[in-house]
Amino acid sequence: MAPTDETGQAAQQPSASGTTPPVRPPVGGAGTNGRMPRWLPRAMVLALALVAVFQLGSWAFHQLTGLLVNILIAFFLALAIEPAVSWMASRGLRRGLAAFIVFIGVMILSAGFVTLLGSVLADQLIKLIEGFPEYLDSVIHWINTHFNTDLKRVDIQEGLLRSGWLRNYVQNSATGVLDVSAQVIGGLFQLLTIALFSFYFAADGPRLRRAICSVLPPARQAEVLRAWEIAVNKTGGYIYSRGLMAMISGVAHFVLLQALGVPYAPVLAVWVGLVSQFIPTIGTYLAGALPMLIAFTVDPWYALWVLIFVVIYQQFENYVLQPKLTSKTVDIHPAVAFGSVIAGTALLGAVGALIAIPAVATLQAFLGAYVKRYDVTDDPRVHGHRWRGDGPGLLARAKGLWERRREPHRPEGRGPGQNSS
């Protein structure tokens, strides 16, 4: 038995050569005295630093979401006006001045449209308020005639003025004016931000491309420039094709409204053209609602005619006009366009719905160069026909079954040439 010391551990005995064998360190990461490894504190500090950086980045991203969305809108607007700015610059005009001219033209057209539309709505609202007593009298007369009541307009007005509902509504409206004012000011600031970024992107487009390509190898530079060119072509083509369809739609609706004698036909036609083309999915219904409402004030049957015309023209646009105008600019399937609008709305709201179609068209055109395509075999199923095989067809089988049912019933045990005696 080996001798032990007072702690109970076996005493180290000298080896045959008189030297003490070296002590092996304990298995594991701990040191000789049970200390923690030297890398563990550094790993803990690095993990805490990564968590802190992630939290800080997440907080900054949520705080800057509005700014990032504005920059995205400005980038697509700059892509949309890039062809016009480049055309002016190729004619000897400075690029900054060309971008300024395009922006001034867009702002003048937008301001004129909003002013005309606001005047139309204000005029119709004034007429509605002035004619409200007469309209209320006609409604009261109809109710008294059909329900044998004795309602009077004075009694209804006094009841409304004394009701607590009207008082609460006025108070809530008074407090809501401040909220509306704040939203208007915020919207104007947002429009200014988008306009400034769009101007810088359009005016300094070549400089921005050079700055991006300067940090990439030559092969990647070619890919970035190609993607940029595709994005410019698709976005610009989408905007211009939509503008052409808006002009055609406006002219068609102007002819109808002018023929019906609906007031403010030019402004309403411009409204229908722009809203139906630049607000995806629900733009058609929003565009047709205002002309129908104003036509209803002239004659209820006119509103019905406007509704019928809007529905028919929408079908003509979807199946005849739009495929011809957008086949070389956007060229995406209607189902893909509808799905992209829904996805864009879910991600970015109305902004995503507006930029979804050109973004998907750009991505589709960029990826199309890397997808290898093959010749399609001459199979009937490719053209939408069923595979019939070698047996008889469905009509032949049905005809044979019908003929067998019409044959006379023969007694059992007798062939076709046997007669009963």
Q: Average pLDDT, to the nearest integer?
A: 76
Separation of the first and last Cα atoms: 124 Å
Q: Helix/strand/pairing class, anyone?
A: mainly alpha
- The number of distinct β-strands equals 0
Overall geometry: extended
Give the radius of gyration.
Answer: 39 Å
Question: If you had to describe this structure to a student in words, what would you say it looks like?
Answer:
It contains 14 helices and no strands. It has 421 residues and is an all-alpha fold. Helix 3 (95-130) packs across helix 9 (265-278) and helix 8 (218-260) runs antiparallel to helix 9 (265-278). The longest helix is centred in the middle third of the chain and has 43 residues, at 218-260. The radius of gyration is 39 Å and the shape is extended.
Short description:
The protein is an all-alpha fold. Helix content is 73%, strand content 0%. It has helices at 39-63, 65-90, 95-130, 132-147, 153-162, 164-203, 205-213, 218-260, 265-278, 283-298, 300-326, 334-348, 350-368, 394-406.
Summarize this structure as a short list of keywords or feature phrases.
421 residues; mainly alpha; 73% helix; 0% strand; disordered N terminus
Which SSEs are present, and which pair or pack?
Blueprint (H helix, E strand, L loop, with lengths): L38 H25 L1 H26 L4 H36 L1 H16 L5 H10 L1 H40 L1 H9 L4 H43 L4 H14 L4 H16 L1 H27 L7 H15 L1 H19 L25 H13 L15
Helix pairs in contact: 2-3, 2-6, 2-8, 3-6, 3-9, 8-9, 8-11, 8-13, 9-10, 10-11, 12-13
